[in-house]
Design goal:
By secondary structure, the chain is α+β, with helices and mostly antiparallel strands. The chain has helices spanning 3-13, 15-39, 42-50, 53-92, 97-138, 149-176, 179-183, 197-217, 225-252, 255-260, 262-310, 328-337, 370-377, 440-449, 469-482, 495-533, 536-548, 553-586, 597-630, and strands at residues 315-319, 342-356, 362-369, 387-392, 407-410, 413-422, 434-438, 454-462, 493-494. A hairpin with a 5-residue loop joins strand 2 (342-356) and strand 3 (362-369).
Length: 636
């Protein structure tokens, strides 16, 4: 029989194993492509340039790569574990290690190529479906589906690198195995790892240190979040690597409790080495998805409130002789035609003065008459010609050193501050939010000297700002047709456009994180399911022998149920508790958890969804295990 004939013969005989292995790798590529199709979408790329999207997506992206490394390596190990005895048989009939390596590489090549083609194909299909669902539910049509070379290349390169590194380690492992070890691979029992309690103490210490560090530093040094997350992940791994044995050793001190569930404890004790990495990874995945989805929901609501606060006017723009020169009658008629009439219009004539500041920087000030200021604020202030009112159109916490201005000089005038008003009253337009309010005579003299810097600020309130988008777009189009030039200073600022922009960004971020969560949900479930069913033949053989010596079906059922429950819900509970501690630490800079109870509601919602999904997975997995074991047990 030729070498190629042996390859095809093995594929036919082990078709189900090859199919499962191919499905796992196809699933991994599908994961990666779906993520990159969103991450490198044109609209998301634009958002990365204008806000902190890169920072927000850094940890989920890193978690996805970490998950892929573990997932691909774990699937490959399972596949090789089932094949090791076959490789030993080939060695027994005279096949050299080089030939076995060549056989494995040839199999891996075909599987990787087919997996890439299938994964990219299904990835494109599901990505298109995702964008359709996203556009429908978010009512946002700005984010379009497309496929780019960068998406395909990054998906293929990352997968191939992880895949072939796993293959290389398998080749080295197989070449170092003896013939006897290979033939007896199915009878080899995992050695129980020696318990090292001090590692568990170190793990708990790292967890406490990372949580306290986050709580203390996040408000002022948010960039340390990644460091604290790494310390938490390391601490979690060290804790879990020793927690199972430590708990079992404590239980062994209570013979009545230990011997009542000896099947369960002995099984967990045997499997704890393999469970450590799996439980750590699933805990991290659950923590990240629960944390980020809760924060995203909270941010979306908080930013909506911020839009209302930061945009007191529904629409605002600046006018001079060249730009945005439209009559009051035309302005009112334009909004009336869109069935959204103007209910209030405030017009502020001002003069923009530029002064050299420190390091020759330009600082801009808006010179406003006291009459116009009184009309704006409904006050009745009076000024002498050598006095001014400092009006800063910002929230007090953001003014910096502006509040220390006590005198102001311009041209031949030297003015002394009589009064100050620091509050966000108008939507910001122009180059400055600082107004120097002066006597009307002073204002007229300044106008004569700086007539080329004379402008109007228009602040509009309409009947329904949420339905003002068409009117705003019509206004922008009208201004565009009036002049061929463009100048950012005269751009129209509107509450509805900022609302829509934030809606798009928050929708993209939320759906992206939700999508990653769904990927993690299924990925974690597959890993857990594969772990539970990987050694089902050995488990079944063990149960058959135990059943023959008197262990009842109910005892076996109780053991399977409890072990499945522990494996599925331990990482869920750990991940959610860790996520909640991070939520508490990350809201310190906005008043603490007691002043932001909305995020607790969102967190409980996401946690409840996770527990519900895990419960469904638990029922499905438990049923599958019962089916696989039950059919081979002798009847009562």
């Amino acid at each position: 029989m030729t070498f190629n004939a042996i390859v095809w013969k093995m594929i036919r005989v082990n078709f189900k194993r090859y199919l499962l292995y191919l499905s796992c790798n196809t699933f991994a590529i599908l994961f990666l492509f779906l993520f990159f199709s969103i991450y490198y979408n044109d609209e998301v790329e634009r958002m990365k340039e204008t806000n902190s999207f890169n920072t927000v997506l850094a940890i989920p992206a890193a978690a996805l790569v970490l998950f892929m490394i573990f997932f691909i390596q774990y699937a490959h190990q399972m596949f090789i574990k089932k094949r090791t005895s076959e490789y030993g048989l080939f060695m027994a009939i005279g096949m050299s290690p080089n030939n076995i390596s060549r056989l494995l590489m040839l199999e891996s090549f075909f599987i990787s190529v087919i997996a890439v083609l299938l994964g990219l194909g299904f990835g494109a299909l599901f990505s298109k479906l995702f964008f359709l669902v996203f556009s429908y539910f978010s009512m946002v049509n700005h984010t379009f589906f497309h496929i780019s070379f960068k998406m395909v290349a990054h998906t293929t390169i990352i997968f191939m690198f992880i895949f072939w590194v796993a293959v290389a380690f398998s080749i080295v492992q197989i070449r170092n195995q003896t013939l006897v070890t290979s033939l007896q691979s199915k009878q080899v029992i995992n050695e129980t790892k020696t318990n090292k309690p001090y590692f568990g103490v170190i793990g708990i210490s790292l967890l406490i240190l990372s949580i306290l560090g986050l709580y203390i530093t996040y408000a002022k040094q948010g960039e340390l979040l990644f460091l604290w997350a790494l310390l938490s992940f390391l601490g979690l791994y060290l804790l879990l690597s020793n927690a199972i044995l430590s708990v079992i050793n404590v239980i062994k001190g209570q013979p009545s409790l230990y011997f009542r569930s000896i099947l369960l404890f002995s099984s967990l004790e045997q499997k704890q080495k393999k469970l450590t990495s799996l439980l750590t990874l699933t805990s991290i995945m659950i923590m990240i998805t629960t944390l980020y989805c809760s924060i995203t929901l909270f941010i979306a609501k908080d930013e909506y409130n911020q839009i209302l606060v930061n945009n007191p006017s529904d629409i605002a723009y600046i006018e001079n002789e060249q730009f945005n020169n439209i009559s009051k009658e035309e302005l009112f008629q334009l909004f009336k035609q869109q069935n959204n009439p103007i209910v209030n219009l405030q017009t502020l004539p001002f003069i923009e003065i530029a002064k050299d500041d420190y390091y020759e920087w330009k600082s801009y000030y808006n010179i406003l008459s006291i009459d116009d200021y009184n009309a704006l604020t409904n006050e009745k202030l009076q000024l002498d010609e050598n006095e001014f009112v400092l009006f800063i159109n910002q929230e007090p916490q953001y003014i910096g050193d502006l509040g220390t201005i006590s005198t102001f000089e311009m041209d031949q005038f030297k003015l002394t501050k009589k009064h100050e008003n620091i509050e966000l009253t108008l939507t910001f337009v122009g180059q400055s939010s600082t107004f120097i309010v002066v006597h009307p005579n002073v204002w007229q003299q300044v106008l004569q000297e700086h007539s080329n810097a004379f402008y109007y600020q228009h602040h509009i309130h309409v009947a329904d700002w949420k339905n003002s988008l068409l009117a705003v777009e019509q206004l922008q189009q009208t201004f565009k047709q009036m002049t061929l030039e463009t100048n950012e200073l005269f751009a129209v600022s509107s509450k509805i456009e900022r609302y829509m922009q934030n809606k798009i960004e928050n929708a993209v971020l939320f759906y992206l994180l939700t999508f990653i969560s769904i990927l993690f949900y299924f990925g974690v479930f597959i890993l857990l399911y594969l772990n539970l069913t990987a050694d089902i033949e050995l488990e079944r053989s063990k149960f058959e022998k135990l059943y023959k010596i008197g262990i009842t079906k109910n005892e076996i059922k109780r053991k399977l149920t409890t072990e499945t429950f522990i494996l599925l819900f331990t990482p869920t509970l750990l991940g959610i508790v860790l996520a909640f501690l991070y939520v508490v630490g990350m809201v310190q800079d906005i008043g603490g958890i007691t002043n932001n109870l909305d995020i607790v509601v969102y967190f409980l919602l996401m946690s409840g969804i996770y527990f519900f999904i895990q419960f469904c997975f638990f029922l499905y997995t438990k049923g599958k295990l019962f089916t696989k074991v039950w059919r081979y047990l002798s009847s009562d």
